[in-house]
Design goal:
Strand content: 25-35%
Radius of gyration: 14 Å
Strand order of the largest sheet: 6-5-4-7
Number of domains: 1
Helix content: 25-40%
Largest sheet: 4 strands, antiparallel
Number of strands: 9
Order of helices and strands: EHEEEEHEHEHEE
């Protein structure tokens, strides 16, 4: 089991606020959408959370501040991020992580997010 911690910061609060406002969310690797609120957990160049809702044309998660790296998995601050990320998963992935409105409101107000990952499950905790 691996634990990923996302500390409260401006971008995480903004991601939570905009996720609360959004009505439709894209499921990864499909053309399907859902009304269930949530974010993407992504592992590629680092490990991060990002928006699962659509952005206006020409906007990206990075330019809008919707990319939030887990502690220790940001390539701009960890020169060994590839090796460290590989220990979490040998493959790149994108997973939709459903979040309740109360969890999102808590994060929007400054709570941290902790994700525990195993090969079969993702467990989410919002910690004030």
């Amino acid at each position: 089991m691996h634990t990923l911690k996302f500390k409260s910061n401006d971008n995480l609060r903004k991601l939570a606020q905009q996720t609360l406002k959004a009505k439709k969310f894209k499921l990864p690797y499909t053309n399907e959408t859902t009304s269930k609120k949530g974010v993407y957990l992504v592992k590629d160049d680092g490990i991060y959370l990002m928006n699962a809702f659509s952005l206006a044309k020409g906007k990206t998660p990075s330019t809008e501040g919707f990319t939030v790296y887990a502690e220790g998995y940001d390539p701009s601050t960890n020169e060994n991020v590839w090796e460290d990320s590989y220990l979490v998963s040998g493959d790149d992935f994108g997973e939709f992580v459903e979040m309740s409105s109360s969890m999102l409101a808590s994060v929007a107000n400054g709570s941290d997010i902790t994700l525990m990952l195993s090969a079969e499950t993702i467990e989410l905790k919002v910690v004030a």
